Amino acid sequence: MPVYEYEHLGDGCQQGKRFELQQSMKSDKLTACPDCGGEVKRLISLVSVNTPKGNSDLKNLGFTKLVKRDDGIYENVTATGRESRYWDAGKPETRPDLKSKISD
Predict the structure, then answer these.
(1) Which of 29, 30, 35, 48 has the fewest CB atoms inside 10 Å of its own CB, making it the most exposed?
(2) Strand pairing report for 73-76 and 66-70
(3) Its pTM surpasses 0.70
(4) Annotation: CATH topology of 3-42
């Protein structure tokens, strides 16, 4: 269940001016503090998003990254195992082995 942040519109209570509450996404947002009954509003919280930084991170996470090298030629900079390092669009046997990376 997600954690939502709320802020008192007045002075606050024992929980302070802001407080967090774990509730279902299906639940209605609070309009009153559960402790003091004062009026509250739900805040939009900051989120953290991590993205892979380099080719080795992408490779470790199972991604395939192709870099265009020539007309119809791509370098698979995240090639693993028996995958070809270069993919020639005219040669299907050089295509990256996505089935080994994708599972249900």
Answers:
(1) 48
(2) antiparallel
(3) no
(4) Rubrerythrin, domain 2 (2.20.28)
